[in-house]
Prior knowledge:
By secondary structure, the protein is α+β, with helices and mostly antiparallel strands. The chain folds into two domains: 2-54 and 147-316, D-amino Acid Aminotransferase, Chain A, domain 1 (2-Layer Sandwich), CATH 3.30.470; 58-143, Dna Ligase, domain 1 (2-Layer Sandwich). It is built from ten helices and 14 strands. It has a seven-stranded antiparallel beta sheet. The protein has a four-stranded antiparallel beta sheet with strand order 1-7-2-3. Strands 4-5-6 form a three-stranded antiparallel beta sheet. Helix 7 (233-247) packs across helix 10 (306-316).
Amino acid sequence: MWGFASPKRLRELGIVGMNKRNVFYIAQHNPRHLYPTVDDKLQTKDLCRGHDIAVPKLLGVCKIQQHVKGIVEFLEPYDQFVIKPAKGSGGKGILVISGRDGDAFLKPSGQPVSHEELQRHVSNILSGLFSLGGKPDNAIIEDMVQFTDDFKGFSYEGVPDIRVILFKGYPVMAMTRLSTHASDGKANLHQGAVGVGLSIKTGKAVSAVQHDAPIEKHPDTGRILTELEIPGWEEILVLASRAYEVSGLGYLGVDVVLDRRYGPLLLELNARPGLAIQMANQAGLEPRLSWVVEQEKEMKGSVISAKEKVLLAMAAFA
């Protein structure tokens, strides 16, 4: 267990810790003036749409408290949607509505949400309860993703997503985050979702964790997690790599979802991606990041496409 390994042993395993991530990768490769674009999901969505990168459909934005009373009427045509803070992090403040029961909205778990509760949630988002730094925020209303049947039995009461870590546009590590009953339908590891490490070469599952502990089966469905294989893997990695080109951030986390109607959609970008992905993969990031550095030296300033970077990474990493 890495949690009981010595610092020397962790270095031998190639584990990147918080300090090294912040000092050597984020600080040196992510210019601060670019952060607002990825810290604000509305700006991210506009950036991606301007470069023909597919994102979930935007239904509306609530920007001021005076609009909260009208939110239920605005949502009348929609049975399924997601409300999230534009500047939220860690999955906080995301409300997923998957249906209705009379006047009540329903979460994926079947738990009802009254009109008053929904209005209160939107009001809390606007007041900055879930935003970075507690600053006033906007509430984004998006179409709910209809995930593909490839995830059937692997995720419970929610939409799974795929996190890809990019360094200079090369995908170096990936995992899928699978929702559970404990995570309330959200693909957030800190709230109890399952993290499944994915092979960069094939998109097949390699190992899985929940609450940083190895597991073999999904806690709610019993599905064997290593049976998972992500369809259209190369296309997903190319979509993620293109996010580096448009964001300008050298060390970047890209979250992608698979919609059965529209294919891969870019969900959000993260300039400070977490390090739990190493636990999910049972592998350290450092050897792969070092490979990118050497690869860039060999290129001697030559510019190659996102697809070329993806193919090189797929050939280099398991």
